[in-house]
Amino acid sequence: MEKNTIYIALDDSKRKLVVAMLRPAATEPEEREIPKDPSHIQRLCRRVQREGPVQACYEAGVSGYDLYRQFTAAGSRAK
Length: 79
Known about the structure:
Layout: E1 6-12, E2 16-22, E3 30-35, H1 38-49, E4 54-58, H2 64-73, E5 77-78
Parallel strand pairs: 1-4, 4-5
Antiparallel strand pairs: 1-2, 2-3
Helix pairs in contact: 1-2
């Protein structure tokens, strides 16, 4: 784990994303739900990137490639 990286995990469903974020100083991830909409995903990326580099992982599935493209387009590393 890189020292200042913010790690994001995504659980994908038909209408929403469950997002868990682990910030560098945190001991527990912060969890939230956002609509499964490209504008919400991009806004989340931009906000979190202000704090430091972002690395994201997501549930493998049908929409995984779309999530990958949205996160990498916003400048985050996605796996």
